[in-house]
Structures are given as structure tokens and as C-alpha cells.
């Protein structure tokens, strides 16, 4: 009889867990207050991962008002969460709306990336002779938990970063790539949150175009567009040749890197520096063609270089611009491209389904956007409540 009661209790627990796993993240956090057993279920790491797996992907955007690097002490910024639909319909109102803001406000730092509902934030010291101290922590905007700071990383200001998740070790990692002046050497260091130190990894064969270009996370890897043997970070794009351009992919499991071939259809160097991005769990490469057209490539199967597909080619004339302002975000499975407009605080939305262009004023708002999914996770690092 006791065994039957135990079996029934376990079955009831499994049923409750199954039902709760379909409830959106925000309301499920309130359900912790129903009873101790529900609190135990919702707080369990297995449930957190199960719930994240069932959460809708790429339905939410996280916006930050990010000061330039080195930071501008005059600027303050916070985190704004929005549905894709709301932002497309009215970007300015969405970013200004108080109901979209979390009580968590981050000042003077900047967001490196977002993964599984956790946001990686860098805390910047003051640069001295181009050397800067940086600390990193994770935060969950939904639950209000924040991790302890990472050990200090001392690098020069010509450093790019990336943030992602290593499923094999259940760890979140931040990666730094630092150029070494005229030698062109790129030093790579990795920190696993919850650890006590940074560790060196194999040097990159190329360095990212810009230290403001965060690594793009997909398939357990961080990816950058870079230049091979540019003789330092002070390069002239007009002197760059096609064989110098490469895509470097860093594997977070093995802490090693490899090259991914560019689309075979690229037969000449673009007039402007191209852009790499990950949207909707697809890798994109975006560039101009002869300063007259905008081209977007999509890698349909990550890691398969033969799956590069030219998604669109559109003239600047049709977009109503004289020069290309590459996309800052892509929506609706690669159908809608948000382009920086002719003016700093203007956005153009190009919809390739009907070949239309919509121009929107964003009222002097300067921001960065990230894919974001609400989750209950706190990660393996030690967290505290704000």
C-alpha cells in the first residue's frame, strides 16, 4: 500500500511538472508561492532546463542603451524587453514604454551577449595607456538574480568578447580576443563562470574587425569575422584582399578554433566591412556589392559550408539610400531586415516578402539589440538577489 501511495505521488509530481513546463516563465515564477512542493519543482535544475527547452525562441528582444567604448560617463542605460511584433510596429514607443523596463538597471557597464535567459555584462575600469581592467557577471532580468564578478581581466582596449553556453560542461563562458599591436598576434582567454581564473586558449589566426563586435553564439560556438595577417589592428580596409577575410569559429567545448569558409559566391572584397550575425538560430553574412547593392547570405545548416544561400540582393536605390547602413537586426526568419537609416536615429525596415521599405524615426534613441528568451535559470555560478 505504501508503495502504491509513493507511486501515485511520483506520478502526480510528474504531471504537475509537465503542466508547469508549458507555463510562460514570468507567471511560473509566481506559482512558486502556491505551495512548497511547487516551489521545489520549479526551482529544480531539471525543471529549469525542461522549461527553457519549451520556451518560445526568438520572440523577445533585449535592448540596451550602450555607451561607446571607452564608455561615455554622461550616458546611463538600462534593459528593455519587448516582443518582436511590438518593436516592428513602433520602435520608439516600445523603447520608451515604462512597462517594458525591468526594475533592474545597469549603469556604466555594457552587455556582451544573451544566452538561455542569462545576460553577460562587462564592468569597465578606466583605461590607462590603452590598458583596461574588466570584470564580468551574469544576470537574469526576469528573476533579478546576479552572479558574483569574474576575476579581473587586464587587456588593451583593442579587445573583442563573446558569450555563450557549453552544454557538455553545463557552463557559461566568456571569451576575449586581444590584438598585440603591430605583431598582429591575437591572444585568446576564456573564463567559465563559477571558476576562479581565466585560462589561455590557442591564438586566433585572425582578429575581429572591431572590438565592439561581440562573438556570435550558435551551435556551441562563438563566431567572428576577421582579417588574416593584417599587421596589427590599425589597418586600411582599402588595402584588404579577399584572401585576408575569414570567419573564425571558437568551440566552447574544446576551447579551440577553426575556419569556416565564406560563401562561394563572394568573388571580390566588399567596399565596406561586412557584418556577421546570428538571428533565429541561423548564421548570416551581410555585405555590400560594388557600393550599389546589399547582399545577405544565410547558412541554413550551421557548420555546413555548402549550405550558404544568398537570401537577397537589393539595390541601394530601392532602399532609398546612397550608401549602405548594414542591418542591426533580422526578424521573421530572415524576412525582415532592420537597417540603420540615413540619419543616426532613423531605422529602415525592409520586408523581402513584398519588397517594401518602411522608414521609422526612433527619437534620438541609441541602442543595441539581442535575441532573448525569458528563463528561470541562474547558471552554475554563484548568484545573489538584487
From TrEMBL:
Family matches, as Pfam families: F-box, FBA_1
UniProt keyword Ubl conjugation, yes or no: no
UniProt keywords, alphabetically: Signal
Residues in the signal sequence: 1-25
Protein name: F-box/kelch-repeat protein At3g23880-like
SMART domains: FBOX (SM00256)
Domain F-box, chain residue ranges per copy: 12-51
UniProt superkingdom: Eukaryota
Amino acid at each position: 500500500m505504501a508503495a502504491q501511495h509513493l507511486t501515485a505521488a511520483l506520478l502526480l509530481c510528474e504531471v504537475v511538472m509537465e503542466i508547469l513546463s508549458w507555463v510562460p516563465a514570468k507567471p511560473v515564477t509566481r506559482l512558486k508561492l502556491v505551495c512548497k512542493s511547487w516551489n521545489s519543482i520549479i526551482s529544480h535544475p531539471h525543471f529549469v532546463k525542461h522549461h527553457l527547452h519549451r520556451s518560445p525562441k526568438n520572440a523577445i528582444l533585449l535592448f540596451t542603451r550602450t555607451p561607446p567604448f571607452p564608455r561615455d560617463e554622461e550616458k546611463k542605460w538600462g534593459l528593455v524587453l519587448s516582443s518582436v511584433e511590438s518593436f516592428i510596429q513602433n520602435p520608439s514607443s516600445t523603447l520608451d514604454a515604462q512597462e517594458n523596463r525591468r526594475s533592474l538597471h545597469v549603469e556604466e557597464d555594457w552587455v556582451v551577449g544573451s544566452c538561455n535567459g542569462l545576460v553577460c555584462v562587462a564592468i569597465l575600469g578606466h583605461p590607462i595607456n590603452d590598458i583596461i581592467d574588466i570584470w564580468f557577471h551574469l544576470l537574469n532580468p526576469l528573476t533579478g538574480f546576479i552572479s558574483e564578478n569574474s576575476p579581473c581581466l587586464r587587456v588593451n582596449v583593442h579587445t573583442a568578447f563573446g558569450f555563450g553556453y557549453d552544454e557538455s560542461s553545463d557552463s557559461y563562458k566568456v571569451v576575449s580576443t586581444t590584438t598585440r599591436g603591430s605583431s598582429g598576434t591575437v591572444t585568446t582567454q576564456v573564463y567559465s563562470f563559477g571558476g576562479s581564473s581565466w585560462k589561455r586558449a590557442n591564438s586566433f589566426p585572425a582578429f575581429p574587425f572591431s572590438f565592439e563586435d561581440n562573438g556570435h553564439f550558435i551551435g556551441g560556438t562563438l563566431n567572428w569575422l576577421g582579417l588574416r595577417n593584417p599587421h596589427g589592428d590599425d589597418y586600411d580596409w582599402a588595402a584588404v584582399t579577399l584572401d585576408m577575410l575569414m570567419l573564425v569559429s571558437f568551440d566552447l567545448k574544446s576551447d579551440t578554433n577553426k575556419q569556416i569558409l565564406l560563401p562561394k559566391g563572394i568573388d571580390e572584397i566588399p567596399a565596406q566591412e561586412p557584418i556577421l550575425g546570428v538571428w533565429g538560430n541561423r548564421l548570416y553574412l551581410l555585405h555590400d556589392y560594388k557600393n550599389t547593392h546589399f547582399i545577405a547570405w544565410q547558412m541554413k545548416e550551421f557548420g555546413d559550408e555548402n549550405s550558404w544561400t544568398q537570401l537577397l540582393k537589393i539595390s541601394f536605390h530601392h532602399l532609398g539610400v546612397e550608401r549602405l547602413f548594414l542591418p542591426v537586426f533580422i526578424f521573421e526568419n530572415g524576412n525582415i531586415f532592420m537597417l540603420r537609416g540615413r540619419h543616426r536615429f532613423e531605422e529602415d525596415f525592409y520586408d523581402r516578402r513584398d519588397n517594401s521599405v518602411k522608414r521609422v524615426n526612433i527619437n534620438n534613441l541609441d541602442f543595441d539589440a539581442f535575441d532573448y528568451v525569458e528563463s528561470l535559470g541562474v547558471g552554475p555560478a554563484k548568484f545573489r538577489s538584487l
